[in-house]
Amino acid sequence: MKKLTVLLSTIALVFLIGTQSCGGGALGNSPSAIVKKSINLIAEKKYEKVVALYAKKDGTDLTEEEKGKMIGLLSMANAELIKKEGVKSLDIIEEKLSEDGNTAEVKWKITYGNGKTEDNDGKLVKVGNDWKMIIGN
Question: Which of 113, 109, 42 is nearest to 71 (CA)?
Answer without folding.
Answer: 42
